[in-house]
């Protein structure tokens, strides 16, 4: 049996194992470590959870998430109603500042506005993806942070990598330019890759993180 066939078997098992994902209408394919998810799911949250599940499988290098959200029965909703629910949910979440706004077109939610930290953007995405009727989501929120000293920022991220037990700092290189952080190197899993990105986003003044890391097994 080929490596890709083993990978597909592992992916199907993981999708079946995850109670947050209904894998009945999901088709999985793999080629040289790149996984493609096709088919339909019942919510935007489920689409995002399916990608996370795929990233947990040993051997996965990239995930191309082509899943489409198909609402069951009469769950299709007017854009104005979806936007109202998104704004209400954002307002009730203490991690999302009032500077975040949303617009909806044909069920697709676009988040706009400004925040001070990446975790606030992540929280806004999480909240909006849980709204019934949302078919897809685009995050256009900008981070409004003072530009840090490049040398200080680079050094602080390197030190944070070394402190973090989940990240092998020796395999990563960090460069910064006007608040934009680029991480290069190899990591041993998607979990380590996500953790390295999260560490970089936690540094004050970071406005973007370019992930040039490669997962090796």
Q: How would you concisely characterize the structure shown here?
A:
The chain is an alpha/beta fold. The protein has helices spanning 3-17, 44-55, 79-92, 118-129, 150-163, 190-201; strands at residues 26-31, 34-41, 62-65, 68-69, 100-105, 108-115, 136-139, 142-143, 172-177, 180-187, 208-215.
Chain-averaged pLDDT = 92
Structural class: alpha/beta
The count of DSSP E runs of length 2 or more, i.e. the number of strands, is: 11
In DSSP terms, counting alpha (H) and pi (I) runs of 4 or more, how many helices?
A: 6
β-sheet strand percentage: 25-35%
The residue ranges in which pLDDT falls below 50 over 5 or more consecutive positions are none
The largest β sheet comes out as: 4 strands, mixed
Oligomer: single chain
Rg over alpha carbons: 19 Å
Measured between the Cα atoms of the first and last residue, the distance is: 19 Å
Shape: flat
Q: Summarize the amount of helix as a percent range.
A: 25-40%
Order of helices and strands: HEEHEEHEEHEEHEEHE
């Amino acid at each position: 049996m080929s490596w890709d066939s083993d990978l597909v078997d592992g992916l199907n098992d993981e999708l079946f194992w995850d109670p947050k994902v209904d894998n009945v209408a999901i088709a999985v394919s793999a080629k040289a470590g790149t996984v493609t998810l096709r088919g339909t799911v019942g919510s935007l949250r489920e689409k995002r959870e399916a990608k996370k599940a795929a990233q947990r499988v040993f051997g996965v290098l990239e995930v191309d998430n082509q899943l489409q959200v198909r609402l069951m029965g009469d769950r299709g909703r007017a854009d104005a109603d979806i936007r109202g629910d998104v704004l209400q949910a954002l307002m009730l979440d203490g991690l999302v500042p009032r500077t975040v706004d949303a617009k909806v077109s044909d069920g697709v939610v676009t988040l706009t506005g400004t925040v001070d930290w990446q975790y606030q953007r992540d929280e806004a995405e999480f909240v909006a993806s849980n709204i019934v009727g949302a078919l897809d989501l685009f995050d256009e929120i900008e981070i409004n942070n003072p530009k840090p000293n490049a040398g200080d920022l680079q050094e602080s991220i390197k030190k944070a990598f070394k402190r973090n037990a989940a990240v092998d700092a020796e395999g990563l290189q960090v460069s910064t330019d006007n608040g934009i952080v680029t991480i290069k190197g190899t990591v041993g899993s998607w979990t380590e890759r996500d953790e390295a990105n999260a560490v970089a986003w936690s540094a004050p003044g970071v406005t973007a993180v370019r992930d040039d890391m490669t997962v090796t097994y």
